[in-house]
Amino acid sequence: MSAQTLLKIKEIEEEMARTQKNKATSGHLGLLKAKLAKLRRELLEDPAGSGGGGKGEGFDVRSTGIARVGLVGFPSVGKSTLLTKLTGTFSEAASYEFTTLTCVPGVIRYMGAKIQLLDLPGIIEGAKDGKGRGRQVIATARTCSLILIVLDVMKPMTHKAVIEKELEGFGIRLNKKPPNIVFRKKEKGGINFNNSGTSGAITIDAVKSILNEYKIHNADVYLKEEVTTDDLVDVVECSEGKGRGVVYIPVLYVLNKIDQITREELELVDKMENCCPICAQKEWNLDGLLERIWAKLELKRIYTKPKGMMPDFEEPVVLPANKVRTRKKYTS
User: Fold this and answer.
1) pLDDT of residue 27
2) pTM for the model
3) Cβ contact 156:253 at 8 Å
């Protein structure tokens, strides 16, 4: 099953590369993208084949703390050293590759919060296609609240592009918000499509081609902003059921080993968006990294005040910003 799925994925990718992108081909490309998304999902859920699907032995780690942060990167970029320095949990580090073969958890204690940190095995090019333990790594990364992509500062852009491709290929959308698309399946009435708020780049033919691949023939589709056919496929995938489809996860790029570059080079790489330069071995800028992690997770501290008593400033309740609206139950 896994080998056949990989072959189909390769054939579709080759056909997409050959097809010119214009309004006339938008329906055909939309159909191909929908087929590709379904095959990617099947590959992730398939427990057979190289690398396995799902989490597997050594990857099924119970979630603890207010949030889960995953360390993703090529082998020997310093993930294990970073886990040890931030959490005190030992994760074997060495000069040779693939010293970490399973998921190693630790806990960061910061600003009154407990944040779970996962050291994942090194990812390699082709991980999304089952090479190494890539699918298990990516499946675990999908469960994280934040992903730290750890890069060797000597070759950050090369590794960054490869890792982004691998994660995106399995439905992880990096530093993106869900598109503003209203999608509702219904019992009858055909496809009701409205793109009046856009430039019209997505046509009704493209929408019908995508939905037809999912055997959806009756639905309302309203585009409320400029989106792509990829965005529409993502929305449909998310509607297919729990645990399926895409996930939207914030990412911070950790540029490690800055002790090996000059001050001028550091100033240059520091301009990269969503990045934090560090040296894990020498513990340079680890406080700055923790601040960035806190900000990316959008955590808030709430200090409780029992009736008739002084506020408790010693042990705050820590919540994600989108759950702060529930604070009344802590203060009443």
Assistant:
1) 80
2) 0.84
3) yes
